[in-house]
Write a structure and sequence with these properties.
The chain is mainly β. It has three helices and 13 strands; from the N terminus they run αββββββββββααβββ. The chain has helices at about 5-10, 155, 160-165, and strands at about 15-20, 20-25, 60-65, 75-85, 95-105, 110-115, 120-130, 130-135, 140-145, 150, 170, 175, 180-185.
Length: about 190
């Protein structure tokens, strides 16, 4: 390597001594702090244009139910009860109540029955063979139908509105997921 080419390389690159040895970095790569200083201590470090950052893992969400029974197929309905967009269950936020069904869950399998934030799910009702998974509290009664259904607002929880829509009220088993992703097993 000629002397001229070597000095040109040094003029373009910057040498930085770190606890891990000598690093050669391009000037456009350097932010305000050396690479061995944590970002928390050097908040001006920004991604470099064209730099490929590792992908952010997706947020896990949804309600998954597993059929661990010996009775065959199980059919599941869920009830949702959540506040609208004005904040975290704050005063004045509209309340939404819905019931949805049916999801067929075959023996020994699991199915994601709700794709969004599982903390919105308030209960479930399931049936298969001669078994029924229902609640005992009439305050958790929601509207269902014998075929696929989706009842919203008053049709989902007011008996007269439910019956006018062709449904029937049943008590759902309570479920209170504490996270955005939740799963549980149905057993005999």
């Amino acid at each position: 390597m000629s002397k001229k080419k070597f000095s040109l390389t040094l003029a373009v690159s910057i040498l930085v001594l770190s606890p891990f040895g000598l690093l050669v970095r391009q000037p456009s790569v350097l932010a305000d702090c050396p690479p061995f200083v944590p970002d928390a201590l050097c908040p001006s470090n920004k991604p470099i244009p064209g730099q490929r950052l590792p992908p952010t893992p997706p947020v896990q969400r949804g309600l998954t139910i597993c059929n661990k029974t010996s009775i065959g197929n199980v059919y599941v309905a869920i009830a949702l009860n959540y506040r609208g967009p004005f904040g975290s269950d704050g005063e004045g936020a509209p309340q939404y109540i819905e019931s949805h069904g049916w999801w067929k869950i075959e023996p020994g399998t699991c199915k994601k029955v709700y794709e969004n934030d599982a903390s919105r799910v308030r209960g479930y009702y399931a049936k298969g063979g001669d078994s029924v998974w229902r609640g005992s509290d009439s305050k958790l009664s929601y509207c269902i139908n014998s075929s696929e259904f989706e009842f919203k607002d008053s049709k989902a929880f007011i008996k007269e509105k439910c019956q006018q829509a062709g449904g029937e009220m049943v008590a759902f088993r309570p479920v209170r997921p504490s996270s955005q992703a939740y799963s549980f097993d149905l057993t005999n």
